Amino acid sequence: MKTIGNGYGCWLNYEYVTDARLREAYERRCSRLTVIGDLPTLRTVRGELERALYVMLGKGPKSGSVDGVPGTGITAGTIGSLAAAGIVFGSEETGSLGEEGYAIRAVEGDGIVLAAETDRGVLYAAFHLLRLMQAGKSLDGLDVREAPANALRMLDHWDNLDGSIERGYAGKSLFFRDGAVTGDLGRIRDYARLLASVGINAVAINNVNVHRQESLLITDAYLPSVAQIADAFRAFGIRLFLSVNFASPIEIGGLDTADPLDGNVAAWWREAAERVYRRIPDFGGFLVKADSEFRPGPFTYGRNHADGANMLADALDPYGGIVIWRCFVYDCQQDWRDRSTDRARAAYDHFMPLDGKFKDNVLLQIKNGPMDFQVREPVSPLLGGMTRTNQLLELQITQEYTGQQRHLCYLVPQWKEILDFDTCAIGENSTVARVAAGTLFGRKLGGMAAVANVGDDDNWTGHLLAHANLYGYARLAWDTGLGAGRIAEEWVDLTFGATAGTGVKGEVLRMLLESYDIYESYTAPLGVGWMVNPDHHYGPNIDGYEYSKWGTYHFSDRNGIGVDRTSGSGTGYAGQYHSPNREIYESPERCPDELLLFFHHVSYSHVLKSGKTVIQHIYDSHFEGADRAEGLLQTWDSLRTELDPQAYLEVRERLAHQAEHAREWRDIVNTYFYRKSGVPDAKGRTIY
Q1: Do 534 and 652 belong to one domain?
Q2: CA 554 from chain center: how many Å?
């Protein structure tokens, strides 16, 4: 049984290899270590390999190769430095690795070579090797070549200088406390280590809703401290980004305008960029939320988003920086009586006319769906709609609408569906994964970003099993071809130990893979979404947003439920998709059941493809979902004697709450629709 304790080590909690034969095989190839070069990242490689091997083998590796023979033991370095040491990789093996790819090969003389074009690639190779060893894999005949699917693999932190985290469910900020940048660089380095181990290469450390105090992060009042975080990140191949306030020239700069076409405003931002890069030479760039949910932006001055983004891009361009401009823009002052205005349309309507007008160092960050990280919504039509603009897929790891890390909800199956969705933009296989990476349309920049789910809780994520979402996002960002099951199995092996009992591995794996479907089944049905309490977004409140300004409605009445988003009789949102997706969503007969109520208002007696009526599906799914949530708790309890005691108790507390809360969801949703429809449950179960 692996000692997990408080979960601080996450998937890097190395353990001694108890299988003597396997340990001897590892010792044969890993008893010596040579890392060529002394860059900060390569020092990290050396330190991590020494640390891991000491624990896994019971002794650290000796330094250097035997008698100076290259390739004895582990030898790690860039392709150029390896060649100088007499170790040559053919161009056919390394030509497609790019800046961050790597090769790992077992060589004659019981050696292993980690090779890459850059020091960052060597770092990722080292963690790949250790991942194999943690999982108990053989190193004989090893021949690995990998390159990331996405150039940018980013986390967005919604942290504020007072230490709070917007939509944070795991304690306070890692970066800020009481109006200052934290001095706890040790924990920040530990965090960077976790991220580097799964290939994250960019982090925005502050909230996209930038308040006045956070606007000062790009000034000399805070930059020396911010630079210390950047230094900690740099040793792990991570570039630091900052969210900025579009109105900063007014708020902190003394100007009377933030008009992006005003020369004084542009000059102010150029000076700000120069100041940041003076302190942080490898600064990544600015993340911007503008003209959204009361945040200032170019609309104030009659300008468009390209005007705003391009002005900032010009300021960053001399230093190689980029602007990440969020497309989360919609009317948040909507009159609920107005059924023609549809929030789902907003991003497409705002940004499609600007396709091709953004500079090359601008990335548009597009949420996976048209609304706001609901448990089920269609893929945003903007992904695959724009063909001449760099795009970045935005996901949410923090479980704002999926149980807030009090419920188990493994999100990788959802993300896989999104990445594999065929936009049909230029024929078959025009997947979101290819759109985001930039390969579909030949764009220079691309990648994935996600809202982080960590805080200063001992176990980082509040719910120990929520580690799997952080791990899973990063692994998907590196390799979008990985399956949800493969990623979950990796995480279980690394967290609970490759030698954990088959009961632990199999049951925890099943819990993870079923949890997303379970959560969806006892919350909002058939893609309708938003049945949560306003503001904090936790717990059932079916009409919580029905008469609000935010534009998120389900239009339930005594006859039916759902939003008509067709082109013929509704808002026209379905028409924003390429064919044949457009025609599929336009038709209630062809529309997938799980999205039916997102696209159509139908009667409670409408028969789904499953053969059930809509109302019976609502009843059945909520009863079954609550039962299955109780089953998660029972499964965990059955593993008690095989689990680390502290981990068992901490997770059990969360699962017990989830089971109780699922029953609350079940009873409120079923009662609401029974009273609306007047249709009884065909199975005669208790509905209040």
Answers
A1: yes
A2: 28
User: What local confidence, expressed as pLDDT, does residue 578 receive?
Assistant: 98
Flag the least confident range among 68-82, 130-144, 163-177, 342-356: 68-82
Q: Mark whether 234 and 294 lie in a shared domain.
A: yes
505: Cβ–Cβ under 8 A, 6 or more apart, which residues? 489, 492, 493, 496
Task: Tell me how crowded residue 310 is: count the other CB atoms within 10 A of its CB.
Answer: 22
pLDDT at residue 511 in the model: 98
Same domain, 118 and 256: no
Is position 372 annotated as part of the catalytic site?
yes
Same domain, 216 and 322: yes
Catalytic-labelled residue, pool 372, 489, 564, 620: 372
Q: Which of 293, 338, 360, 653 is catalytic?
A: 293
Q: How many domains does the chain have?
A: 3
Nearest CA to 552 among 598, 593, 595, 516?
598
Over 624-681, what HEC string results? HHHHHHHHHHHHHHHCHHHCCHHHHHHHHHHHHHHHHHHHHHHHHHHHHHHHHHCCCC
Banded model confidence at residue 63, pLDDT cuts 50, 70, 90: confident
Spatial separation of the C-alpha atoms in residues 332 and 341, rounded to whole Å: 11
Does residue 579 belong to any structural domain of this protein?
A: no
What would the two tokens of residue 181 be?
A: 């940048």
Q: Are 280 and 350 in the same domain?
A: yes
Beta strands in 535-661 (DSSP E): 560-561, 602-603
Q: Is 144 helix (H, G, I), strand (E, B) or coil?
A: strand
CATH at 647: 3.90.1330.10
pLDDT the model gives residue 369: 98
Which one-letter amino acid corresponds to residue 301?
Answer: Y
**What does the alpha-carbon distance between residue 71 and residue 111 come to, in Å, rounded to a whole number?**
5
- Look at residue 493 and tell me if it is in a domain: no
Q: What rounded mean pLDDT belongs to the chain?
A: 96
211 belongs to a structural domain: yes
Give the position of tokens 């790009």: 218
Whether 583 is catalytic is no
Residue 21, class by beta-carbon neighbours within 10 Å (0-12 exposed, 13-18 middle, 19+ buried)? exposed
In this structure, what CATH number is given to the domain that contains residue 53? 3.30.379.10
User: Is 355 part of the annotated catalytic residue set?
Assistant: no
Statement: residue 342 has pLDDT above 80? yes
Measured CA to CA, the distance from residue 192 to residue 311 in angstroms comes to 31
Do 334 and 465 lie in one domain? The reply is yes
Q: Both 432 and 517 in a single domain?
A: no
* R_g of the chain, CA atoms, integer Å: 26
Its domain, for residue 554, covers 501-563+601-688
Which of 78-92, 161-175, 409-423, 667-681 bottoms out in mean pLDDT, i.e. has the lowest?
A: 78-92
In the predicted model, what is the mean pLDDT of residues 605-625?
Answer: 98
Is the same domain home to 523 and 653?
yes
Q: Domain end: 482, 511, 528, which one?
A: 482
pLDDT reported for residue 501: 66
| Distance from C-alpha of 497 to C-alpha of 14, rounded to nearest angstrom | 9
Percent of the chain with pLDDT over 70: 98
To the nearest 10°, report the CA torsion of 532, 402, 245, 228.
150
Of 400, 493, 507, 586, which one is the catalytic site residue?
A: 400
CATH number at residue 232: 3.20.20.80
The whole-number pLDDT of residue 72 equals 73
